[in-house]
Specification:
There is one protein chain. This protein is α/β, with parallel strands linked by helices and about 350 residues long. The protein contains 13 helices and 12 strands. Helix 5 links the parallel strand 5 and strand 6 (about 175-180). It has helices spanning about 10-25, 65-75, 85-90, 95-115, 150-170, 195-200, 220-235, 250-265, 270-275, 295-300, 310-325, 325-335, 335-345, and strands at about 1-5, 30-35, 55, 75-80, 120-130, 175-180, 180-185, 205-210, 215-220, 240-245, 250, 280. It has a domain at about 1-190 and about 220-245 and about 290-310: Rossmann fold (3-Layer(aba) Sandwich), CATH 3.40.50. The chain starts with a strand and ends with a helix.
Length: about 350
């Protein structure tokens, strides 16, 4: 089977490919990626030369390039990871989020509709719990929770979710959607809370925490997320939505304090000195108070459950960043951007 992945050089997509390509030599994986700022080809170094992997340097907003790539490779399954995903960036400049997350999803759906006859193929759309808005102190997001996005990022993802469902209902494209909670783990671009905190701890820089750090998120280890997506691809029902969560709610301030404790143990630093780096900063606009996923449906119907606890996943994450300073340096210095320009600038 041929499986096309969008955004495979990004955080979740790269983890997915690194997990699935070696495990499934019977499938051929095509990675379609625009190689924007958060995509790092170093994340896929272990896949170079594999017979069941190919890379296509394509931007989803270029419809002709998208349809040409799909026509060339004839995938039976499309798993759509590609998205602009950083909330702060969406507030500073919303336009790229609308182009990639809405127009890019539209282009991909249209290319699939052109390639497949009605009822053929599978379009799996990877989305977020942020489309549901903010919870109070109680309750969980279910697959039936109404949409109430707060940021330009979450609004663009909500719109893309609606497009996917519409193409399924109107044009007969077989679709599945997963909405996940906050991911963390190896290969995450260091603008997000956990990798940023780890790097700042190692360099003894201030640890920025919005407001009082009271915002609550449900955390999901990226490897568990990848396993869940593959489970839905293999076993999920077309037309269905599955929420994927880690059952690991934490306040942001508690996440930062736990990272201080882990980094102190791993490096021999004094925990009190690391805790002293915590710096409270002005809260961002529209900052949702709490997200929490009810993952009962995927657990009950498909048999998936997270393998990692928050504690074990965090230890693995810190250890990976400590063991891979070259990857971090390539991201932070811009070396990987120069590599992309040298190798793909003319395409």
């Amino acid at each position: 089977m041929k499986i096309l992945i969008t955004g495979g050089a990004g955080f979740i997509g790269a983890n997915f490919l690194n997990l699935l390509v070696p495990r499934h030599p019977e499938h051929f994986f095509i990675n379609l990626d625009a190689l924007t700022y958060a995509a790092n080809p170093r994340s896929l170094a272990g896949l170079e030369g594999r017979a069941n992997y190919a890379f296509a340097h394509v931007d989803l907003v270029d419809f002709e390039a998208v349809r040409k790539t799909l026509a060339q490779h004839q995938p039976q399954v499309v798993i759509h990871f590609a998205a602009e995903s950083h909330v702060d960036r969406s507030i500073a400049g919303p336009r790229p989020f609308l182009r990639t997350n809405i127009e890019g999803t539209f282009n991909l759906l249209e290319a699939c509709r052109e390639l497949w006859k009605a009822g053929e193929g599978l379009f799996h759309h990877v989305s977020t719990d942020e489309v549901y808005g903010s919870l109070g102190a109680e309750g969980l997001f279910t697959e039936e929770t109404k949409y109430d996005p707060s940021s330009p990022y979450s609004a663009s993802k909500a719109a893309s979710d609606h497009l996917v469902r519409a193409w399924g209902r109107t044009f007969g494209v077989p679709v599945k959607i997963t909405n996940c909670s906050n991911n963390y783990g190896p290969l995450q671009f260091p603008e997000k809370l956990i990798p940023l905190t780890i790097q700042n701890l190692l360099e003894r820089k201030p640890l920025p925490v919005y407001g009082k750090g009271e915002n609550v998120r449900d955390w999901l280890f990226v490897g568990d997320h990848c396993e869940a997506i593959w489970t839905v691809v293999e076993k999920g029902k077309p037309g269905e939505t599955y929420n994927i969560g880690g059952r690991s709610e934490r306040r942001n301030i508690d996440v930062v304090k736990q990272l201080c404790a882990i980094v102190a143990r791993e490096t021999g630093a004094r925990e009190d000195e690391l805790l002293g780096l915590i710096t409270y900063v002005k809260d961002r606009p529209g900052h949702d108070l709490r997200y929490a996923i009810d993952a009962a449906k995927i657990e009950r119907e498909l048999g998936w459950k997270p393998a990692e606890t928050f504690e074990s996943g965090m230890r693995k994450t810190v250890r990976w960043y400590l063991d891979n300073p070259e990857w971090v340096a390539s991201v932070r210095t811009g070396e990987y951007r120069r590599w992309i320009e040298q190798n793909y600038g003319g395409r």
